[in-house]
Amino acid sequence: MRILHTSDWHLGRSFHRVPMLDAQAAYLDHLVETVREHSVDVVVVAGDVYDRAVPPLSAVQLFDDALHRLAAAGVPTVMISGNHDSARRLGVGAGLMARARIHLRTDPDDCATPVVLHDAHGEVAFYGLPYLEPALVKDALGATKAGHEAVLTAAMARVRADLSLRPEGTRSVVLAHAFVAGGAPSDSERDITVGGVAAVPAGVFDGVDYVALGHLHGCQRVTDRVRYSGSPLAYSFSEHAHRKTMWLIDLAPGGEVAAERLDCPVPRPLARLRGRLDTLLEDPALEGHRESWVEATLTDTARPDEPMARLLERFPHTLSLVFDPERAPQDPLASYAQRLAGRDDQQVAEDFVAHVRGGSGPSDEERRVLRAVLDEVRVDDVLGEVSR
NCBIfam families per the record (predicted)? Predict the structure, then answer.
């Protein structure tokens, strides 16, 4: 069976205030053409269809058009909700859409109810695990605790139980939206850390033939059977080195996996430039970035006059300007942003406690309190997104 694995469309998202709807429409054109060109048997979309719980009407229309075209192509689609989606909104009409072979899996209670497809060699069961917010699904799934590994372990136990009752030789595919250990993140994914932990081990998914992951925006292989397709478009300059692709997966009769990366259209290349303003304006080696979306980091010790206007003359698609003056490490004027670089909310909070106490950091119990409060704020944010 030939599977096209994609995820993280983020319909409705912009890139540094540049609307991306046309680029997203071009990608979906490419997706439908790829389905036809490569004789795809099923499309899987591993979450974050939209960029927010209540997407703009233009994004909804684009999604609706894509579903109609996939249905018209006669190719089934299996799709789950991600942490950016409103599971309830995305799942509206799921029963009716299934008649058109568009299968939405947005309810955790349905994680062990597969979409069963057939090829010449028998059945393939597709299990959809939507994004599982631990605090919200722990009890429903019977998880041992409110953590990502615990809820995914509980969901996969249900999957394996169902699979064990199916005919011998049934192949299996799991769609999941999660941060799996070994994956490389970027700046454009929303933090899903719970209890100080975001990643789950790949072994959680043992026992199935292929795991189609969403959430991380870089296309990557965790194991031969566990892969991220990544987002089809770049949504932050941290993705400037990404090759945006989809996975074309051939699932053999015995469950063997063959994978090929298929390139996605690039609306405009990204460039991260760093140096003194005069150097960026004069260096002939940078001429190739004239048509790129540019993030410029200026290292001048004094802020130059009208830097953005001057950069736009040479790089008309400059979108981001960052100031990072060259300073000695011991310089007391080193920026606050530099001191925070690479530190998560928990570390920043602990550093603040140490600062106001004159260097004495929080105790273990205080760390647990800080972590619990940060988790509660994040869950409240998720609930707020869903209720809007």
Answer: sbcd (TIGR00619)
**The domain boundary residue, chosen from 223, 244, 263:** 263
* Within a domain: 294: yes
Q: Based on the domain organization, do 280 and 249 belong to the same domain?
A: no
| CA atoms lying within 13 Å on the CB side of residue 180 | 28
Residues in Cβ contact with 378 at an 8 Å cutoff, skipping those fewer than 6 apart: 191, 193, 194
What are the strands, taking DSSP E only, across the chain? 2-6, 14-15, 18-19, 42-46, 77-80, 102-105, 115-119, 122-129, 171-177, 179-180, 199-200, 210-214, 220-223, 226-228, 245-251, 257-263, 270-275, 293-298, 318-323
pLDDT tens, 131-163?
999 999 999 999 999 999 999 999 999 999 999
Would you say the C-alpha torsion 105, 107, 112, 113 has a positive or negative sign? negative
Q: Which two tokens stand for residue 149?
A: 């590994």
Predicted structure pTM score:
0.87
* 3-state DSSP assignment of residue 292: coil
- Domain shared by 306 and 237, yes or no: no
Contact 44, 70 (CB under 8 A): no
Give the torsion through C-alpha atoms of 285, 291, 295, 301, to 10 deg: 40
Segment 286-304, tens digit of pLDDT: 999 999 999 999 999 999 9
Residue with tokens 């997706």: 31
Residue 278 backbone phi and psi in degrees, to 5: -60, -40
Among 272, 213, 284, smallest CA distance to 237 is for 272
Helix (H, G, I), strand (E, B) or coil at 181: coil
- 251 lies in the same domain as 280: no
pLDDT score of 202 more than 90: yes
